[in-house]
Specification:
2 domains, Aldehyde Dehydrogenase, Chain A, domain 1, betaine-aldehyde dehydrogenase (NAD+) activity, Aldehyde Dehydrogenase, Chain A, domain 2, binds nicotinamide-adenine-dinucleotide, Betaine aldehyde dehydrogenase, oxidoreductase, alpha/beta, seven-stranded mixed β-sheet, Ald_DH/histidinol_DH, eight-stranded mixed β-sheet, 20% strand, disordered N terminus, EC 1.2.1.8
Length: 496
Amino acid sequence: MATIPSIATPAEQQDAFVLPAATIAGAPVSNGAPDATPIFNASTGATIGWQEQADAALVDKAVRTAHAALASWRATTPAARGKLLKKIAELIESDRARLSEMQMQVSGKPPVEADIDVGDAAATFNYYADLCLDEKAFAPETLALPDDSVTGERFYEAVGVAALIVPWNFPMVTTAWKIAPALAAGCTVVLKPSEITSPVEHMIAAIISEAGVPDGVINLVNGGGEVGALLTAHPLVDKISFTGSTASGKKVMQTAAQDMKRVTLELGGKSALIVRADADVDHAVMLAVSGAFTNAGQMCSATARILVHDDVYRKFMAAFETAVRAIVVGPPQASNVSMGPLVCAAQRTRVQSLVEQGVEAGASIAFSGRLDQACADGFFMAPVVIAEPPADNLLWTDEVFGPVACVKSFRSDEEAIALANDTRYGLVATVVTADREAARRYKTQLRAGLVWINTPQLIFPQICWGGLGLSGIGRELGLAGLRSYQELRHALADAS
Ligand code: NAD
């Protein structure tokens, strides 16, 4: 698989790269770029490259290639796959600076956030490498049965060809969360990155090839929703792992139903952060800022509904305002930058329009952050905080996916839990409290796949990621992440 050309800095615009429409069996497949779409630098708005689009024939070729590679890849030992996954993790670590740089260009992420993403991707490959090298998770298990005349065995087998579809907000991370367990399980894959941030995935795909993963085991097709739809509908795809909006996830699930394809759906969220009366308010403010404005709020896990106990509401709001006004919004290379731009012009227009609609419907802006001149050309937007929105206001009810947080007060734990759970999503929640017993109650009563108590949004490959309700189906990461690329099977034999 060819590595993509070196990153084009703004001074090198004439050398902008062109990403091939697909990478199949280790080779770039160009279609002459008749309908190539631009890749932007989110902080400057400049075009840094172009991406060719795959068509139905290329999607078919990519899936057939993955299908042809399946039998031999599935037959490799977990230990052999583990060695390759380790090598991928090492190569990601050694390419850390270049991967961070590309992530900063296409997403505008501040250096710290871009670097965390690379570290997370490497950690994920390392985790699944260790799981493979240990081999226990792959060993058949003997069953205790009530009948001595038969023996029973439970075992796991790779599902088959996996279609992996990812969004643009954490491209490298989301891709690693899917590719690492898929390869560990013995699946072959066709990856479709987001059309907005695909250079990062092209780099990861090149690293996977460089590590020695056989040609055909991982393939990549470029394109938007139409290409994703072609991929999910392909009859030779056995498993779909999709991360994106709930609206697209519903379509993916409908398509999967035609062939009973296995599906994992990681979808949207509208999560809550709860500040109890006994909370350390400064710590709560720090968690509120990072929960709402990391990655410019473009997080499925954004805790953009902030619930604050009446007793500390005024103190919290004063400190929150100071903290939000202190957020330095700017391009990654600016000093002390703590929030980057939105990913593209359309995303900024969308978020700004939602704020306007929310305000027209009765939400009031309590305070906002600020932009300075360095933000003139990119897709920047200042953080916005809404106080006490009406319960039916769209800024309170709908996923905004931008730097917009709402704050509401509450008087009792019951009220806080009811407000937090008053959503059809159920991805994550944060509770800030000094009371361990209260934390235990919140942990069980909040409807969320993951609850953080007094911590930032920590995620480790050892835990599982995924939501309840409209936030999706299935879990990524951890042992469950591996199992989601395996079929659980049983065999019974006579004991003689
Ligand atoms: P999106 O649904 O528009 O697109 C996501 C991906 O799916 C893209 O690659 C896109 O090209 C593809 N796609 C779109 N329509 C498709 C279809 N019909 N069939 C197959 N593929 C299709 O989402 P987005 O705007 O790129 O990302 C933002 C959304 O993703 C938010 O709702 C966010 O909450 C969600 N998200 C969820 C998680 C999670 O882990 N739960 C993580 C990140 C983002």
